[in-house]
Amino acid sequence: MKKFYINTYGCQMNVHESEKLAGILYERGYIRADSNEEADIILLNTCCIRETAETRVLGNLGIIKKIKEKRPHVMVCICGCMPQKPGTAEMLKKRCPFIDIIIGTHNMYKLGEYLDEAQHKKVVEIWDKEREPENAPIHRDGKFSAWVNIMYGCDNFCSYCIVPYVRGRERSRDFDEIVAEVGSLVKNGYKEITLLGQNVNSYKGGAPEFGNLLRALSQFDGEYWIKFMTSHPKDLTEDVVKAMASSDKIAKFIHLPVQSGSDRILKLMNRKYTSGEYLDKIKMIRDHLPDAGISSDIMVGFPTETEEDYLCSEDLVKKVKYNNLFTFIYSRRSGTVADKMDGQIDLKTKTDRIERLIKLQFDIGNELARSYIGNTYRILCERVENGIGYGKSSCDKSISFEASEENAGKFLNVKITEVKNNKLKGELI
Ligand code: SF4
Description:
This protein is of the alpha/beta class. It has helices spanning 12-27, 51-70, 88-95, 111-117, 163-167, 175-187, 210-217, 238-245, 263-268, 275-288, 307-320, 347-371; strands spanning 3-8, 31-32, 41-46, 75-80, 101-103, 123-125, 145-149, 151-152, 171-172, 192-196, 225-229, 253-255, 293-300, 324-329, 376-385, 388-393, 398-402, 411-420, 423-428.
């Protein structure tokens, strides 16, 4: 039996897209290999949103070239958003002539046909517009957790981001189709379903707004959670937060990337909100959902960012007290507006700022974590390893506790007993 191996780079969206690629390959009779070295088909599902992911792809291609030299029958396929960046497919063709198939995000569902075609010739096909059907088979990796795309692309054009150029304009999936998919996942025992989109709050698939989709998805029998990501602060409405508050089946957690606390930098980033408007949204969330978990992304070293601008980000982090914060150093992406801006910041300054921000968040996280000792949370146990269970609460608190194998995939009540290195430990009650 022929085997495939998928190398996935980038975000959750790509991880889910790899499940769709696996679905196509299983349907054609292939099985999964444990490594590139064992595979007859090697796929690289790429991401060009961050430079590091792109660099890793190019590094791995060097290793794959050697595999192909030893085993020439191996089919190598590059897909995902990296080949959709202008000039990249051409560069890959020249630099890595051993690649058999180069395709983009919009036509990945045709992988099976391209594999047939590639028996006779190299296939390079990049579509600039999506024409994909939603009924592509999916081979899900998780037994209890599943991802469901509700929309694709983005219309926001943040000045540092390549997504709208490579993933296209916003397209929402049909409301009924999503409801049917989630209903079938719940029926099949999935306990945590995460709705995916670059900007889920601007979902427009037949429902007046995203809140109505959440309400419809919370109507199924059984215990399960609906989560979603990512939310653009400008599009998060009170109706969505009210929908979250209306049912225990919608997790009380929101990832709301702010990116900077400086209004001047937010304007240069084209984020379309001020720090004050962002803080109003945080207040609105906490008014309806006092115990909600809130996380965010912050970027340091955006072009022209001064020490004063950076300190505005620190100030905002102190005000919000995020449960979790993902910090990034700005890196140039060719083809974006920010790449052409004057005032690029040197690496030493960027590194110094990110280290200070990480330290600040560590201290805030530690203080918050200590305040949870003695509280009991309902958690979904995601896995059990060596007698330790790992789970998350509805408000996204990660907790470990002594557990047995049969606890995996179950909802359990866990009391927090200890905090070590900002990590919550608890006991089953
Ligand atoms: S909202 Fe901004 S950062 Fe997010 S995908 Fe769209 S353009 Fe990129």
